Amino acid sequence: MGKLAAVGRSILRFTNESMRIVMVTIIGVLFGFFIGISFPSVSITKLHFPSSFVSYIEDRNSGLTTQALLNHAWTSARNARENSSEPSSSTTFKIYVPTNPKGAERLAPGIVVPESDFHLRRLWGEPSEDLPFKPKYLVTFTVGYAQKENINKAVKKFSDNFAILLFHYDDRVSEWDEFEWSKRAIHISARKQTKWWYAKRFLHPDIVAAYEYIFIWDEDLGVEHFNAEEYIKLVKKYRLDISQPGLEPDRGLTWQMTKRRGDREVHKVTEERPGWCSDPHLPPCAAFVEIMAPVFSRDAWRCVWHMIQNDLVHGWGLDFALRKCVEPAHEKIGVVDSQWIVHQVVPSLGNQGLVFFDDDKKDDEGEVKKKGGDDKGEVLERKVEDFFRSLKKGPGQGEAKAKKKEAEPPQVKPEEWPQPYLASRTTELPPRWNGPTGTVVLIDKPKGWTSFTVCGKLRRLVNVQKVGHAGTLDPMATGLLIVCVGKATKVVDRYQAMVKGYSGVFRLGEATSTWDADSPVIQREPWEHIKDEHIRKAAASFMGEIWQVPPMFSAIKVGGEKMYDKARRGESVELSPRRISIYSFDIERSLEDRQNLIFRVTCSKGTYIRSLCADLGKALGSCAHLTALRRDSIGDYSVNDAWSFSELEEQITKGYL
């Protein structure tokens, strides 16, 4: 009996425990059900299955992971349920993977390929056999066919480790096939565009991610002393993310930072002209390279690419902003001195014009003919100014002005305009300054006045609104200034194009930031070794038609702003050389001070005497700056016939009007 009682108690205890488990299970299921319907949007993408389980049920034929297939199944089931309960809903199939690149969130991670390269692929065969050798670095040149020989020499300096990419601004691509390496290079063509236009559109960081370093070079670089493999070794040794080869100091040098140092492999800092660097670790004393031949690491280029503006086609100012992409910039940016280049300063793209201006015309023989004759530089500047002015017009202003112009009577062409009245010391003052043809007055500009100052004073003196000069004189210069008054301003170009004569003084062995005496001396070089015969030979080498780079401190306008304003702010602007003519250039030593050279020069329009002085100093193996300048003549007009402004003012106030 005792055993039966014990068995009964055991059965009762088992029944109670079973009921408890059943009740807990039912309650748990109900609780889970209510939780499930309370959060219907929970995605299974947030669930991560064990790797062993995922690999076990992998779909070998689909190429998709089981995780992605489960996501698909869950989403499809959920959409079906929602569509059946809410026929009006418009949910779409979606696999959301937040780590995918923008636009690829719906794709499974295994099929996303965010990066590419410039490796050439075969049309047939195994893809794995397409590239027996993958280049590690990328070199780009923006080229025109006229520089083919120079580019050929440059490309030969790069081994098979470098992929070659040519951007063609003249649309001549097939001609390059004469070079064997060109058949393996990548060619991209767009007429009349610059390298930074190409870089923004074709060098996206995800496209060049396969390359450790990216070279973005001009076409006019001499590479006789450059070895690309050695350059890469030095860049890695000194951990430079942004760099450039050193520049030969005798050719095309603008900044001291990029000047080659013969006693070291790499330099990262320099001493610049007084007042140019607010901090020794800031550009242009450090953290600075020029835009003609920069080299970027893969990571640095990813930042720099995003900094390039879509309309920054010339790259002006970019060199001063590169430091924002590396840290610390004064350690990560440098110049490689032992592998150096020469900037040949060959004008190229400047002759191609701008894409938004008039197309080139062809003559009867099919040759391309540029508008504006020989004055391409000035015509281009004038067109750029017109372009910037057009951006400021309100809606409809251009059309209204065009209609008004159509209603006006036809204008007389400048070359057909009758000769204005000439006011000089050998002629009487005009009865009317604003007569039918206007007045041209010869003025001897005093030192310290700008050409604009002379025009402003004369405008108030004769009470005529339209007054303009026919050729700028620097404030430190004196001499003949032709001023057109009233309707004579229509023919100001006639006087600007005339041959000009100057005289003045160069000082050897000393250089200034403005290339004249208006700023302190910042550089001294030996000059005692220079003989008179050396000076005569150097002067003779400048005779004829030459190319000249204007000084940074000049009145040339870029983007609607004068160059000297940009230079004072420390902005870098890459100026193109201009074609000028030197008809005579006579120099002799000063008897009082043999360091001074007295000169007389006759030259074409657009010649900068300060640049001529600086170039002469370099040709003599020294340096020089301009200490005095006087304009003696313009065409047949002489400064001897010009009024001093004080005399002119006195005559006018006496009642000669």
TrEMBL record:
Q: Which Pfam families match?
A: DUF707, TruB_C_2, TruB_N
The membrane spanning regions, by residue number, are 21-42
Annotated tRNA pseudouridylate synthase B C-terminal domain residues: 610-651
* Catalytic activity, EC: 5.4.99.25
> Known InterPro entries for this protein?
DUF707, PsdUridine_synth_cat_dom_sf, PsdUridine_synth_N, tRNA_psdUridine_synth_TruB, TruB_C
| GO molecular function annotations of the record | RNA binding; tRNA pseudouridine(55) synthase activity
Boundaries of each Pseudouridine synthase II N-terminal domain copy? 459-609
Q: Where is this region: Disordered?
A: 391-417
Q: Which UniProt keywords apply?
A: Membrane, Transmembrane, Transmembrane helix
Protein name, as recorded: tRNA pseudouridine(55) synthase
Species of provenance = Oryza brachyantha (malo sina)
